[in-house]
Amino acid sequence: MARRKIAILGGGMASLTTAYHLTRTEALREAHEVTVYQIGWRLGGKGATGRDERMRILEHGLHIWFGYYDNAFRMLRQVFRDWERGADHALGSWHDAFHAQSFTPIGPDFFPLNWPDNDGVPGDGHVFWTPWQAFTQMLSLVAATLRTWHDDREQAGRPHASTVAVPSRIASRLESARVRSAGGAIPQAHHAMQSAAEWAAALGPTHHGPLASHLPDLAELVGVVHEAFAATCPAPGDDAGHGLMVELLDIFRGFAHGFVHDFMILGKTAREVDAVDFRAWLVEHGTTPEVAARSFIVRALYDTMFQYIDGDLERPSYAAGTAAQVVLRMFGTTKGAALYEMQAGMGEVVVSPLYQLLRQRGVQFRFFREVTRLALDPSRRKVEQVHLSVQAQVKQDEYRPTRFYSGLDCWPAQPFWDQLVDGDALRDAGVDFESPWSAYKPAGTEVLQHGRDFHEVVLGICLGAFKKLNEDPTLVDELTAASPAFKAMTESFSLLPSLA
């Protein structure tokens, strides 16, 4: 049986992940012949990195992975398991590529935040927790953060009292949930928040069950903790992060109330909650308006996901239902550590191992291939041809994109000019194969034909290449004209350029 030829256009992480899963087993490798076509000389997309002439890493994407990146870590662990490499390679396992990073100074005054760890292992294949379990984990995280703050104060010889007076109704329910004995006060704010976490855990893996009626009181307890802690005052000139903790509790108060009442009690969908902006949703559920508007904690959530119309910081826009899901995933499903720091460039600890494994599996890579047009067949229902601009000719049969340095397979910040025909002239002309504004004469063209060169096409090129910005043609004009759904997508999404 002949193998199906798969042409993957673009070499970013989505494309490489697709190639990985298409060749994951021997049976899949016998069924698929995969070729990746990539502009320029390196892979990784936004996660690409390069080394300059002094071998300094020029980072092109993020230098950390979050502890909730379970799918990414699962694939990476499998890559390091299957990838055949020499004994002199610096990356013996994925643990060599990523180290847990729990210390994160945050805020304008660099408050020393130590994220609590847990016993989870990212990518272990275990099913993610339910939304309620994720929320329970968030309660524990906030409690641990408060406990760290109190412990630091204690060690500095400046202990801080933050007794929480619990309403009798809540105290009674805590007792019925077998979390705490009945009582009117809890010694410290972090003890009270931990009681909330234990109370949530007592409800079970979901919010349904015999204690479901406790939901409003549980959310109220978070608000009680915020008010009690905010009412405490450190010595003048000795804030030491007290204000930051007050803001955290203020924000979490609104989040907890919104999550419990909108999602758990009323059963709203994220799409329904998306009708309002995240900041407005927090305020609606109890967060102080000024804190929602100015706190860098909220600002960080908007910044991390580029949630601004046209990149304008004066026009923040983050749909509340989507933001709530992101917060739950980010802080409620982390495994092991909250953050994992790469021990070299992302291109070296993620992209290169994946590239090397894919080559070992028989995946072919065609560098210096820029897709210029997708041509449809007469029925307008499938891609008949893929037109490519050959940016440069390679002297040998295959371009070798990495060099071995200090135990790592490293991508250069510029191509290996000596592997290219007329490479010296291209270098001296300042050609940049990754820039649409770099003027040079391509070395030629190439047309991939359906049935001969491919049976299926994976469009892994970034969305910005599909959007009609002016009168110039795009590579997907025929597809846009033939597919109303594709046309609607290209017209509805917005672009937000970012600086590497």
- Euclidean distance between termini CA atoms: 46 Å
Strand order of the largest sheet: 12-2-1-18
Instruction: Report low-confidence residues grouped into runs of 5 or more.
Output: none
Strand residue percentage: 15-25%
Radius of gyration: 27 Å
Number of helices: 18
Global structural class: alpha+beta
What would your notes on this structure say?
By secondary structure, this protein is α+β, with helices and mostly antiparallel strands. Helix content is 39%, strand content 16%. The radius of gyration is 27 Å and the shape is elongated. The protein starts with a strand and ends in an 8-residue tail after the last helix.
List the helices and strands and how they pair.
Layout: E1 4-9, H1 13-22, H2 26-31, E2 32-38, E3 49-51, E4 57-59, E5 64-66, H3 70-82, H4 94-97, E6 98-101, E7 103-106, E8 111-114, H5 131-155, E9 164-165, H6 168-176, E10 185-186, H7 189-202, H8 215-231, H9 242-265, H10 270-273, H11 278-284, H12 289-294, H13 296-304, H14 320-332, E11 339-342, H15 346-360, E12 364-367, E13 369-376, E14 383-390, E15 403-405, E16 408-410, H16 423-428, E17 444-449, E18 456-459, H17 477-482, H18 484-492
Parallel strand pairs: 1-2, 1-18, 2-12
Antiparallel strand pairs: 3-4, 5-11, 6-11, 7-8, 9-10, 13-14, 14-17, 15-16
Helix pairs in contact: 1-15, 3-15, 5-7, 5-9, 5-14, 7-8, 8-9, 9-11, 11-14
Q: Summed up, what is this model?
A:
The chain is α+β, with helices and mostly antiparallel strands. It is 39% helix and 16% strand.
Provide keyphrases for this structure.
three-stranded antiparallel beta sheet; 500 residues; elongated; alpha+beta
